[in-house]
Specification:
Length: 298
């Protein structure tokens, strides 16, 4: 069900920007997520989304955003893609993300977006404008196999499309990243698959991959995930229950092998294992200016 609302605010302040791509502000235009990944942590009770199938649309998001940016004296990266994917299918008609990006471009704020949808390519022209200041786009890729992704991330773009989109964004000079998470025990923990993700990301011009070698499991999120396992991978929920009981953060079984494969492949392709950010880019730019001016003077 889709519920349109007039929200009171659109940006929340993030006290710890270094934890997620340097985002000082988080912008959620929608609540709930149509991509319906079977492992989605946003189903957990702490996020208070009673029914994850209900999508809330903040129809006054562009007006709220403009009001808010007008008043900000200090620039900071605006992040989208926490707890919902900004480019879920209904964005195609609502175009709220696009309108918000246009406002961000006008006010010259840096942006970071994490997504699993190639709908982001629709907004290339605006992202290019924002990139005069800074734009970073991360695609979450958990498996190189389209058929497996269709099971665990049923309404997101297939990984093959995500790699293509990364290639296009990188060619435009936009900084791209892959968030390689979550890795689900028994399901997508093959070291060769991880190698393939790194290689295909590198082919697409990606310079950063940020991994997490496991997943979270708690309350409603776990119940839904186990329900889906029974439907899609019969017998696997039994293995999970036996192996993890009530543990919140669970690691993949062959952690060492997978991590080693990941690090080897990243090293071979010159990929960094960190989250890029506007602040880091700014300080490396300032550092290079400092080096140049020192060089000139000596
Ligand atoms: S795209 Fe992200 S927010 Fe949406 S269902 Fe998947 S994991 Fe959850």
């Amino acid at each position: 069900m889709i519920n349109e609302i007039n929200a009171k605010s659109i940006l929340s302040y993030n006290k710890h920007p270094s934890g997620w791509f340097g985002c000082r502000f988080v912008m959620n235009i929608y609540r709930g997520c149509e991509h319906q990944c079977i492992y989605c942590d946003s189903r957990s009770e702490c996020y208070q989304i009673e029914d994850f199938n209900d999508i809330i649309v903040k129809i006054n998001a562009p007006e709220l955003l403009e009001e808010s940016l007008k008043k900000k004296r200090k620039k900071g990266t605006i992040g989208a893609g926490a707890m919902c994917d900004a480019y879920m299918p209904i964005e195609k008609d609502y175009r709220l993300v696009r309108r918000c990006l246009e406002i961000i471009a006008r006010y010259r704020f840096p942006v970071h977006i994490t997504t699993k949808s190639n709908m982001i390519l629709r907004d290339l022209d605006v992202l290019e404008q924002i990139n005069d200041v800074y734009a970073n786009i991360a695609f979450t890729i958990t498996t190189p196999h389209d058929d497996l992704a269709a099971k665990v991330e049923p309404y997101a773009s297939p990984p093959s499309e995500r790699f293509k989109a990364l290639g296009i964004l990188s060619t435009m000079g936009i900084e791209t990243c892959v968030t390689l998470m979550p890795l689900l025990p028994f399901i997508n923990e093959d070291p060769e698959d991880v190698r393939e993700i790194v290689k295909r990301a590198s082919d697409a011009g990606v310079k950063y991959i940020y991994p997490s070698f496991g997943m979270t499991l708690r309350d409603r999120q776990r119940d839904y995930f186990y329900e889906k396992l029974d439907e899609l991978f019969p017998g696997l929920s039994y293995e999970y229950r036996k192996s993890f009981k009530n543990t919140y953060g669970v690691g993949i079984r062959n952690y060492r092998k997978v991590k080693q494969a990941f690090l080897e492949e990243c090293q071979a392709h010159g990929i960094k294992n960190e989250m890029p950010s506007y602040d880091k880019k700014l300080s490396s730019y300032q550092l290079s200016l400092f080096d140049q001016s020192n060089g000139d003077g000596s």
